[in-house]
Design a protein that fits this description.
31% of the residues lie in helices and 47% in strands. It has 95 residues and is α+β, with helices and mostly antiparallel strands. It has a four-stranded antiparallel β-sheet with strand order 2-3-1-4. Helix 1 packs antiparallel against helix 2.
């Protein structure tokens, strides 16, 4: 199954630490059995509405393929409790 994951990282960090957050979540997916992980940095963009006092954020897009949902569930769990990620969305791509 293929998934597309978009997440937004808080803007009040240096760019190096923002990329480190994205790479750590890419590693979470790989460590839990996901394959063909591609990480695209979409840059800093203005949010459609304010989220937790933030008006801008760093957008990232990950395309991933996984045979089970273990990697996706772990990403979802960690993204929900991580203070650096202000929003995330996981979409299962149609066949």
């Amino acid at each position: 199954m293929k998934y597309e994951i978009m997440f937004i990282v808080r803007p009040n960090n240096e760019e190096a630490s923002v990329k480190k957050v994205a790479q750590s979540f890419e590693k979470v997916l790989k460590d839990n059995g996901a394959s063909t992980v591609t990480l695209k940095e979409l840059g800093q963009k203005e949010l459609a509405y304010e989220i937790n006092g933030h008006k801008i954020g760093y957008y990232f897009l990950i395309n991933v393929e996984s045979t089970d949902v273990k990697a996706i569930n772990e990403f979802d769990r960690l993204a929900s409790i991580n203070e650096e990620i202000i929003r995330h969305l996981i979409v299962k791509e149609e066949k």
